[in-house]
Design a protein that fits this description.
The structure is a homodimer of 482-residue chains.
Chain A: H1 35-45, E1 66-68, E2 74-77, H2 80-83, H3 92-97, H4 101-108, H5 121-132, E3 138-142, H6 145-165, H7 172-179, E4 190-194, H8 203-206, E5 226-227, H9 240-263, E6 268-273, E7 276-277, E8 283-284, H10 287-299, E9 303-307, E10 333-336, E11 343-347, H11 367-382, H12 385-406, E12 411-415, E13 422-425, H13 428-440, E14 443-444, E15 446-448, E16 452-454, H14 463-481
Chain lengths: 482, 482
């Protein structure tokens, strides 16, 4: 879809940063977290459970790829607020947005977009759809990724039941039973998902999430099918046969589970999948795998949902990660959030609801966030950030390949497109040690799965930042090797 | 909790509006919706399902209690964006907030608050908690009301299972089964809710929502118990005996359902209830009812959740509606959203999770919205808006009582505290006619239940606005009486 856009590339000086006034590199003054972060965590903990807090940020001072923390440590941020920052910190174009009085009023007077949208909303939605829609005609806006997936399931269930019901209206029994959570009004339908998947933490989204037990234990759930997801061996070139077996194993399970659940009268209405399992471990599958998966889903009259909450928005070097898969037809739904500043999904005409208030909530998104998204899309185009991601990612990946060769007893399985990269450390505790040592050297990364370290920098991450990351990682690996 | 605050009442001129530059009254130039709204709806509908859109707003021109629509109709807004606007449109104090560079940066650099909160976050959270917490020590921030309820359920399930498990750790079987949605890791626990309740539209929240079939039909759900909610007859003074019978019927059902579900090995871990059922029809229950309900919940080792998403924030004339109930002890959880600009909940220490990442998501709220909430709380205090709501509400309710006496064959059952008012029209189609006729005269109200018309104005709604509403309603009732 970027091909539609006339490129207006801004030429940049060698090594110059895309965001002005970035520091030259990280600078760590204290233990991380330092004394100020520790004190603030204690303060916050008195009012709010703060067990997951890592460091406190100073978002007045943070700039570009650099998070400045409460102790004035300057950290090269390879995690970008769990992959949510498209343009890094304090991007000058984002700081300008709400200096425009019209934009400010749109944000402050946040209306209930489903019933009283602003007169500028159709134009704004059009600007978003025309620039980034993944060959799907319709959009629906939400607040976050979990909600996007939850509401997507509703579009899927509505369309699935409509096919079954034909032109008949709801029966009185359906109307009566729906209200009290019982079939046939609340039918036994399900969404198939994959082991290692992460789709959010509200009840429906969580029923399709299967990463760590700690995300799910003690919470009642739905008996929905979970298929094996391919687990590849790396380097890919050396494991083609084993990985093809993984693809087949997963696809066969999908077919089996659809048959099993159809037989036990809980038909599979939809299948949700991440183009790359993110929280679950940067687990990739081949284009061929996804092409076959789409065929199976179609054959079974179900709908295919790509969850691009983490993969969407450019980190893979394409705007949508599933563009890499050369699918015969577009998927039925593509959900998004994170770098988009709000949640939502693109969907086919077939998945449009037939009546008002079936897929609805009070806010239906947030026009202030749509304005930020418009700015992000414009900057991505003007600064050619997808190309930047490809270039910076290629440099980083190349360096990682060198390191995994040199330190093969510690790290392996370098993988991913663009800057959406990860590698494994041989043991879980050692992985945590590497993460902490990197942080102490001023490079903030995320974990994923049991062994993975993932990079999720902003789209303004460049080759010279990659050199810093590689240097620091080499230092850490050398220390571990001693 | 307002008693803690030194009041700093701003004296106001008789009939002067709390927001400067409000028009003197509504002004309707076209059919509502008018040609511009109709055209915009057609435009939007090409990209997004727009079946529920009523009118498009001009949020540059809207001011105070007045929504200016795309056709320049000036509407007195008694619905305030589904009860979400605390200070009306373009309040000068809210327009100032992001002119402050620090606030602007906090908003733009929206961090993942659960892991990398800003160094100013503890102070901001403290300012909110110390001013508005309903006698509960802990807060958790989310994005919307449905998410607040969903995550609340998790706190409830964690605490319930912890009591049962004691100091034992999770078993391997629990860890393994949780990930694939099966007991004992994903145990058969439930939340009890009430007929006519509305708690949101994600799978867990929707399982406790029982308003209209159109909100639920075709969506799989959870077999969770639904108790009768008291349905009062009005005027209350004339129906004390019948209404007490309603209380007893509901409470007996709650006890029965808890016993039944405990027996079928799906224990009730929590009970969720609105202090006034809002979407369901402004259905009230007595303080005594809620006191008894709390006793039953406690006796059964479950937790009581008040959903104050719509009732919270001042519309009832108290900050929290459940303050009217004189409960023996605070409820276990109070959830909020709408007028608070973001979602969240206050909870007891007992409901604090014991480990990180059990109740978690990417954003955990939005610091930009917390800044808006701080401003709203300050303006409420400075302008004494709770007193204003009581005064304006008393005038409006008094006028409604007069109208229901005069037009008893059309309207009845005037009810509610503060400006959180409603009345019934005798037939559903006639109710819709009254709503449309009011809109055409420039007064925008909401429906609720089958027969209800609800008022949900902003907190800056005053007595002189009430006079306008009463005049227009009288005109409509007179027209229907002809």
């Amino acid at each position: 879809m970027w091909s539609k856009i006339v490129k207006n590339r801004v030429s940049i000086r060698f090594w110059s940063s895309l965001v002005p006034d970035e520091p030259e590199g990280p600078c760590v003054l204290t233990d991380v977290p330092g004394p100020c972060s520790k004190k603030l965590k204690k303060d916050l903990g008195k009012m709010q459970y703060a067990g997951a807090v890592k460091v406190f940020g100073n978002y007045q001072k943070s700039i570009g790829n650099y998070l400045v923390d409460a102790d004035d440590n300057v950290l090269l941020d390879m995690y970008a607020q769990i992959s949510t920052l498209a343009l890094g910190y304090n991007h000058p174009e984002l700081l300008k947005v709400f200096q425009d009085e019209k934009n400010l009023k749109t944000m402050i007077n946040r209306p209930a977009l489903g019933v009283f949208p602003g007169e500028d909303q159709p134009k704004r939605v059009h600007s978003v759809v025309s620039q980034i829609a993944p060959c799907l005609p319709k959009i629906n806006l939400m607040m976050c990724g979990a909600c996007a997936n939850e509401q997507t399931f509703k579009n899927v269930f509505i369309a699935y039941q409509r096919k079954k019901r034909g032109k008949k209206d709801f029966t009185d029994e359906e109307k009566h039973t729906a209200v009290i959570n019982q079939p046939p009004g609340a039918p036994n339908l399900c969404i198939l998902s994959f082991a290692g998947a992460f789709h959010g933490r509200t009840t429906g989204a969580l029923a399709t999430t299967h990463t760590k037990f700690i995300h799910k234990i003690d919470f009642p759930s739905l008996d929905w099918p979970v298929a094996h997801f391919p687990l590849y061996k790396y380097p890919l070139g050396e494991h083609e046969r084993e990985n093809a077996v993984e693809d087949k194993k997963s696809l066969a399970q999908v077919e089996d589970l659809i048959a099993t659940y159809n037989k036990k009268d809980t038909p599979v209405a939809g299948v949700i999948v991440e183009p790359i399992q993110s929280e679950g471990g940067n687990n990739e599958a081949s284009p061929k795998y996804f092409q076959e998966l789409q065929k199976i889903v179609k054959k079974n009259n179900a709908y295919l949902v790509f969850d691009e909450v983490q993969t969407g928005g450019g980190g893979t070097g394409k705007f949508w990660c599933h563009e890499y898969f050369d699918l015969a037809t577009p998927p039925d739904v593509v959900t998004f959030s994170k770098k988009f500043c709000l949640g939502g999904y693109f969907h086919s005409d077939e998945l449009t609801p037939d009546k008002p208030f079936r897929v609805f909530n009070t806010w239906m998104g947030d026009p202030g966030k749509v304005i930020m998204l418009e700015t992000i899309i414009r900057v991505m185009r003007e600064q050619d950030l997808l190309d930047n991601v490809q270039e910076a990612g290629a440099r980083l990946k190349c360096g990682l390949f060198e390191l995994e060769e040199e330190f093969s007893e510690i790290m392996n399985s370098v993988r991913g497109p663009g800057t959406f990269l990860a590698f494994n450390i041989v043991k879980p505790e050692l992985r945590d040690t590497v993460l902490q040592k990197l942080l102490q050297k001023g490079v903030l990364c995320g974990g994923c799965g049991d062994l993975g370290i993932r990079f999720r920098p902003a789209l303004i991450f460049q080759k010279h930042h990659a050199e810093i990351v590689l240097d620091k990682l080499r230092e850490v690996l050398n220390e571990l090797n001693c």
